[in-house]
Amino acid sequence: MIELPPLVDQHCHGVLRTELGLGTFEAYLTQSGAPAAPGTTFFDTQTGFAVRRWCPPLLGLEPHCPPASYLARRRELGVLEAGRRLLRSTGIGTYLVDTGLLGDLTEPAELAAAGGAAAHEIVRLELLAEQVADTSGTADGFVANLAEAVHGAAQSAVGFSSVAGCRHGLALAPEPPGPGEVRRCAGRWLSGRPVAGRLTDPVLLRHLLWTAVATGLPLQLHAGVGDPDMRIDRTDPMLLTDFVRATAGLGTDVVLLHGYPYHRQAACLADVFPHVYADLGPALARTGSRARTVLAEALELAPFGKLLFSTGGQGLPELHVVGARLFHEALGRLLAEWVAEGVWSRTDAARIAGLIAAGNAHRVYGLEGRSDGGRGR
Ligand SMILES: [Zn+2]
Fold first, then answer.
1. How far, in Å, from the CA of 98 to the mean position of ligand 1?
2. Per-residue pLDDT of the chain (377 residues; tens, 9 = 90+)
3. I need a labelling partner for 308 at 20 to 30 A (CA). Which of 119, 196, 232, 366 fits?
């Protein structure tokens, strides 16, 4: 295993606070949103096998033990203690937590306390807009309150995230919409909006992106596989080419998340545009024993200073564990191979591993100068 500094998980979510049965646990092993097909189980996936390989020993069981035994042990320890043991094994020193998922999930400070790590918040734009819409009576009020909310969030968050790709698709018109257009679309959305209705209007999604770009904080865009309600043909990051061209030179970095199966396209954009970065997120946990190949494919074109580690873990601390373990193992084996072949020097391999694991995220998010946002040792 290659030596790594404390990892920066540059995109993840909180973990569930409640005790879990087999069914709920299994549902988090996939992003399908639907139950497993009759006669099958989501434990029989690369993610399921990776969880059974890495997690049982952390709770005092044999690797690959049956899922029911694992879940029984997890309940015996309790959700808090199991979470602590799992998260503290990851080598993650800093979590950047996207707080935009609904459900009974831990807040950044709780995740930090459980994991003995630091945490900072990434604010999800669509959820912020929906919360603003809940309390704004008119289109003008909404537009003004939204500007204030984004500006306010930028004071404490380290970045913004967007799921525009899941809500509409990434083929959005590249330029910022005009104020009249924004007001009209806001009026239409507010008047037809059910309670807690989701934002899918492409003009308002673009307005959100540009409002975030104006803050100068890094903007994370979900791409590739993700929400069950998205269409995978609309989340190819290449569809963002005009948007990244339009935002070049403005001083705001764009981070393409989770790109798989378009991780090569994300790497390509990171190569071409100085302000574009890429991560693999849950792609490593999803592809398990093939993670090394996926990581190698991302490293074909992504400049080494442009690739960031993340787990994309959500709901189960097991996903943070396998994301970190698979990353560590895949990177170690890949770089050892390149060093053995003489194509990389040992010194360069160690330096680049440190950049992808933590250094690049420290630089992009300016983490060095920040207070550690609730370290809980
Ligand atoms: Zn996410």
1. 7
2. 789 999 999 999 999 999 999 999 999 999 888 899 999 999 999 999 999 999 999 999 999 999 999 999 999 999 999 999 999 999 999 999 999 998 999 999 999 999 999 999 999 999 999 999 999 989 999 999 999 999 999 999 999 999 998 889 999 999 999 999 999 999 999 998 887 789 999 999 999 999 999 999 999 999 988 766 678 888 899 999 999 999 999 999 999 998 899 999 999 999 999 999 999 989 999 999 999 999 999 999 999 999 999 999 999 999 999 999 999 999 999 999 999 999 999 999 999 999 999 999 999 999 987 765 544 33
3. 232
Ligand 1 centroid to residue 283 C-alpha, Å: 11
Cα(216) to centroid of ligand 1, in Å? 21
Among 244, 223, 12, 235, residue whose Cα is nearest residue 106: 12
What spacing in Å lies between the alpha carbon of 230 and ligand 1's midpoint?
13
Q: How far does residue 273's CA lie from ligand 1's centre (Å)?
A: 23
How many angstroms does the Cα of residue 11 sit away from the middle of ligand 1? 6
Distance, CA 166 to ligand 1 centroid (Å)? 11
Delimit the domains of the chain by residue range. Answer: 7-365
Query: How many Cβ atoms are within 10 Å of 354's Cβ, its own excluded?
Result: 15
- Phi, psi dihedral angles at 112 (to 5 degrees): -60, -45
How many angstroms is it from 312 CA to the middle of ligand 1? 5
Q: Rounded to 10 degrees, what is the CA torsion of 280, 285, 287, 291?
A: 60
3-class SS at 308? strand
Q: If we measure between CA atoms, which residue out of 3, 4, 12, 1 comes closest to residue 87?
A: 12
Q: In CATH, what class is 7-365?
A: alpha beta
Q: In the block, which residue shows the tokens 């919360």?
A: 131
How far apart are the C-alpha atoms of 338 and 349, rounded to whole Å? 8
Q: Which of 74, 158, 160, 77 is nearest to 118 (CA)?
A: 158
